[in-house]
Design a protein that fits this description.
The two termini are 34 Å apart. By secondary structure, the protein is α/β, with parallel strands linked by helices. α3 crosses α4. The longest helix is centred in the middle third of the chain and has 18 residues. 28% of the residues lie in helices and 16% in strands. It has seven helices and seven strands, in the order αβββαβαβαβααβα. Keywords: Hydrolase. InterPro entries: AB_hydrolase_1, AB_hydrolase_fold. This is Alpha/Beta hydrolase protein. One of its GO terms (molecular function) is hydrolase activity.
């Protein structure tokens, strides 16, 4: 089983789990997921390699409840409603593996983040939640590290070019697998001297190889002292531990002490870097 997992295509299926495309439903209609028509719109963002990413652009917080049908649909609202103003903040949310942007806990997080920021700063706030290639209603191809890096860059380009945000207005948020994607994006932007305002890492890992040999549902423990030999066989690296020292923005790392999937020591190692 472990040797089979070293096959690149099978490994990508195991790492990204994009085949778990849940919940089912029309992601192109945000109102079906509890958003007001004037609060969220569905988008398709082109990538540099000519794929398409499904996304939600959410503006302002609300209680995520049913809406009257008399409200204007998102496409009928003026373009100015969706553009980023001078005092606005934009969050780019990069989710973990398995499931799409409509998962209940992800939608709850969008609302919590928007509401908390709105109460703290009393300024308009945006959130862009994308589904990577192979996830949700994005192009149906097998995800890879190289591909997800392009997806994150496409989302960043949409925020800064199409929405008109300055890099200093954007906070990149990554959760679990998304912390690797977020760190890689911010590293690329830092190298180009266009870093975001900040980076938030929720339940991060140091690298996929390091996380893989500790994964509780895979019997790598049977290999005992030889399990480190598996590390070179992991093709999807996401080596955040090597990238984080070069980031040119503030970084917030959050990790639960009871996380059974990714041990908290990964967060401590990233912090010490």
């Amino acid at each position: 089983l472990l040797l089979l997992a070293a096959i690149p295509s099978l490994q990508r299926l195991l790492v990204y789990m994009s085949w778990i495309n849940y919940p089912w439903g029309n992601l192109a209609n945000p109102t079906a997921w509890g958003f007001r028509p004037d609060q969220a719109r569905s988008l398709f963002i082109p990538t540099p390699d000519n794929l398409s990413l499904g996304a939600w652009h959410i503006v302002q917080p609300n209680a995520a409840r049913a809406v009257p049908t008399a409200r204007s649909p998102a496409h009928a609202l003026p373009h100015d409603h969706w553009t980023v103003k001078t005092d606005d903040t934009v969050f780019l949310y990069l989710h973990g593996n398995a499931g799409n942007r409509g998962l209940r806990h992800r939608r709850a997080f969008y609302q919590t983040l928007l509401t908390a920021h709105m109460r703290a700063r009393r300024r308009r706030v945006h959130l862009l939640a994308i589904d990577y290639r192979g996830f949700g209603d994005s192009s149906a191809v097998l995800p890879s590290e190289a591909g997800l890096k392009l997806d994150a860059l496409a989302a960043w380009t949409f925020i800064t070019r199409d929405l008109g945000a300055q890099p200093s207005q954007v906070v990149v948020v990554g959760h679990s697998l998304g912390t690797g994607v977020a760190t890689a994006l911010v590293h690329q932007l830092s190298t180009a001297n266009t870093p975001p305002r900040g980076l938030v890492l929720l339940a991060p890992f140091t690298s996929i190889p390091n996380a893989a040999i500790e994964y509780p549902w895979v019997p790598v423990w049977l290999l005992g002292p030889f399990k480190s030999l598996l590390t070179p066989l992991v093709h999807e690296k996401w080596e955040s531990i090597d990238r984080i020292p070069d980031l040119a923005c503030n970084v917030l790392i959050v990790h639960g002490s009871k996380d059974i999937i990714i041990n908290q020591h990964h967060a401590h190692a990233l912090f010490k870097r």
